Fold:
Amino acid sequence: MNLRLASGFSWLRSGLALAALGFAVRAVADETLLLVDDYEVLYRSGTKRILHPAERRPEAVIVQDRPWERTISYNSVHRDPVTGKYRLWYQSLLSADPESSGVAYAESDDGIVWRKPDLGIYRFDGRDTNFVLAPEAGHYGASVMIDSRETDPARRYKLVCFRAREENGRKVMGLAVGFSPDGLHWRMHPTFPLIKGSYGQRTEVPLQGDTTYAWGVPRSVSDVINVLFDEPRGLYVIYAKTWLDMPDGRTIWKRAIVRTESRDFLNWSVPELVIQPDEFDGTGVEYFPPAPGVNPTRRGIQLHGGPVFRHAGVYFSLLQKMDGEITGRMPSELAISRDGITWSRPFRSPDFIGLSPDPNHFDAGCLWTNETPVILDDEIRFYYGAYSGLWNGDLLRTPSGIGLAVLPLDRFAGVSPINGIGQITLRPRSLADCQGVTVNAAIQGELRVEVLDAQGYRLPGFTREDAVPLHGDSLRHAVAWKTKTLRDLPPGRYSLRLHLDRAEVFALTLH
Structure:
């Protein structure tokens, strides 16, 4: 379904239901309140919050079937809101050398069946390929965005990646950016690295002013880079892998996530550490001497990457949670933030996007999440790259490919009673412009919504007894009362209270 039409049908379906209940439907943007955290909640009684993992499709939607696809991993996807067609850019390696990474391209009518067009931009062994950027240049970890705000047609498509160049006889790696008018023909900006990367050998932290030091500032960006436009701030933002220092203070120990921002895509701020592993990750094996032959950079649970997207006022990070020593596996964990800077990790288990239990499956080993979920009328699609290989084994073991995991719309986490009955009281707010409310909930018993004033008193006509009970499972239960509507409320601030009887609530939408 076309995304613009899908959004319209969603509004229309909710609007018809509200109109049938006597609400005047307004043509303004709805506001969805996600219950993935307690940001909108004043308090709740007798309830618990449970993560709902995305459901993986059983097979890869893009398979490793070209001779230039040694492995497939990092990717970005876009669905055109008018045509409904999909475009996807993915990293493809010619060899086991990470610097043989090129950016390949695929397209689809429905997001399920994909084509790899022969573009004639780059040839391999005498034949055309679907590469849009040559692998010899080492476009490592490329992230692509389509910038609808851009006034220069040649810069409408933007790309960030990690690249290397020679500087005074030394290899220097870091942030590179590129621009394209169509997503196929790219021009890399001649100045790079725009930020020198965090890379190299384990050493003491360099002294301030050390002119022999070739790398970036401590905790700079490294070789996993994801970009988005932060709408509330009007800034381009990169979330990238970095390296933390060891317990003894030396460099290159564990991977974590930094953030840098820019107004023009060229001048970026000094990276700032925002998400890191802690003592609650794993077994703590990394605090003890390693066994002989263990790679010291693969000890303990690490955050290999953290692509971020913003939806319904919430920043979500699809953390790549790496266990490089014990299991060798890297599933995805869901982290949340309300400002994109201060993060919480309330859902350490289960994995948000898990791994196949079949060791021969394409996504049995490591997942490479991205910052571009596709949000449809009734579901959210998460595309991800995957290896069957393990960090403590053959990381580049075949097969690899692009997978798809699906979540019902806004059902990241639900709040439900601990023992049958519970209630959720939202923070007081003005309901002057609110013509109606819908609730995203799975209800086995019933759910009723009442209205309290700002001091916590119930309001006649809006009590639990006055509420029309809701039943069943729906993304859009229309809330109503027997004799009144929200238009009958005098000016003021009010709390919505949800009474749950064997019901799980994921979100509310104010219309």
